Amino acid sequence: MKCLSLMANRTFSSNTIIDPSFGLTNSAKQLQSMAHQFAINEFRPYMRQWDEESIFPREQLRKCAQLGFGAMYVPVEDGGTGLSRLETSVIIEALSQGCVPTTAMLSIHNMCVGMLSKYGSTELKSRIMSPLVNFDLMASYCLTEPSSGSDAAGLLTKATKKDDHYVLNGTKAFISGGGESDVYFIMCRTGGPGSKGISCILVEKGTKGLSFGKLEKKLGWTSQPTRAVILEECKVPISNLLGEENRGFNYAMDGINGGRLNIASCSLGAAQWAMEEAIAYSLERKQFNKLLIEFQNTQFKLANFASELLASRLLVRAAASRLDEESQIDSSENEYDNKHISIPPLCAAGKLFATEKCFTIIDGCLQLLGGYGYLHDFPVQQLLRDSRVHRILEGTNEVMQLIISKDFF
């Protein structure tokens, strides 16, 4: 079953304000083109079937890894592709124009592999890095709990050290890839209350005491499995600790800064596709003996959508470039912090603005398509459902506002 698209027989001009290659280097454009072509061939024809039948396309994700997308910003020395955060954002946006939830799962996997590369021990990396890079193993990020969503530092999952192992007890909620992933990055309490008592411990599928809740039925992202991750007297070796004990919250927040930009990039891709569908429809559909595109109301709406999409894209890419700058600067340079906006509020602003504006764009494009936009035969309704959760996950947009506001005092 293929996903019908108004763009199927139309070549969209790249010389427009919503051209996603605007401002990119030639090498970034090549990566974008490769990712977009892959999305059109390997994701888009099956997106509707995956959605309606709740199929998780793991084989297509393995194909992504063959292109180097399994560990995009992991250094080459750790087996990754060694791309910049900006290049990663460009790729994720392009892949999302084939299937948003599949690309989002790839984004989460990359966030985990990036944390492993940056903070993992040599022993831990030598054991599982290569299969993660190749997507023979898939990773899930486990921070949220039933009683601590936005209050992530208040998590209750506990890890008790006993001899040469940890014993974990607790429950993680709304875990993307739950039950399907092979490695779970569990944020758990090894010390006192608050963020300074949290560690990150990797729990592998098949470990005794690890189980999963029921498959959650969701508004969107139906092709991506979401379950609770349950830990009951779950025993793992101390070598599965990521980095240092009681530093896990720092690692989690470091990973999620980039993760927020990745999710924002998924929204960019969804809005780009919705815009292309709306423009194609407006160029073909007639009302009162006029093409829709000839009505000033349509022109004004599309102009606003295009401006908001461009602004969202530029903000996300500016934040991604800022992440790249930090990775190249020696942290001992005291003057650095006085010359740059700090990363957390900038990433939060990118996530807040892009996910809000892109959802509004998609909703407006659906309205332009009228009844057709509401049908499952066309992709815009699925883009709407799949992009709605981006305003919730990786920190709700209300939390993004808190992060930004703390930068003022």
Automatic annotation (TrEMBL):
Keyword Oxidoreductase: yes
PROSITE patterns named in the record: ACYL_COA_DH_1
Cofactor dependence: FAD
InterPro entries attached to this UniProt entry: Acyl-CoA_DH_CS (IPR006089), Acyl-CoA_Oxase/DH_mid-dom (IPR006091), Acyl-CoA_Oxase/DH_mid-dom_sf (IPR046373), AcylCo_DH-like_C (IPR036250), AcylCo_DH/oxidase_C (IPR009075), AcylCoA_DH/ox_N (IPR013786), AcylCoA_DH/ox_N_sf (IPR037069), AcylCoA_DH/oxidase_NM_dom_sf (IPR009100)
Domain Acyl-CoA dehydrogenase/oxidase C-terminal: 246-406
Keyword Oxidoreductase: yes
Residue stretches making up the Acyl-CoA dehydrogenase/oxidase N-terminal domain: 26-134
Keywords: Branched-chain amino acid catabolism, FAD, Flavoprotein, Oxidoreductase
Gene Ontology molecular-function annotations: flavin adenine dinucleotide binding; short-chain 2-methyl fatty acyl-CoA dehydrogenase activity
A GO BP entry: branched-chain amino acid catabolic process
Catalytic activity: 2-methylpropanoyl-CoA + oxidized [electron-transfer flavoprotein] + H(+) = 2-methylpropenoyl-CoA + reduced [electron-transfer flavoprotein]; propanoyl-CoA + oxidized [electron-transfer flavoprotein] + H(+) = acryloyl-CoA + reduced [electron-transfer flavoprotein]; (2S)-2-methylbutanoyl-CoA + oxidized [electron-transfer flavoprotein] + H(+) = (2E)-2-methylbut-2-enoyl-CoA + reduced [electron-transfer flavoprotein]
Protein name: Isobutyryl-CoA dehydrogenase, mitochondrial
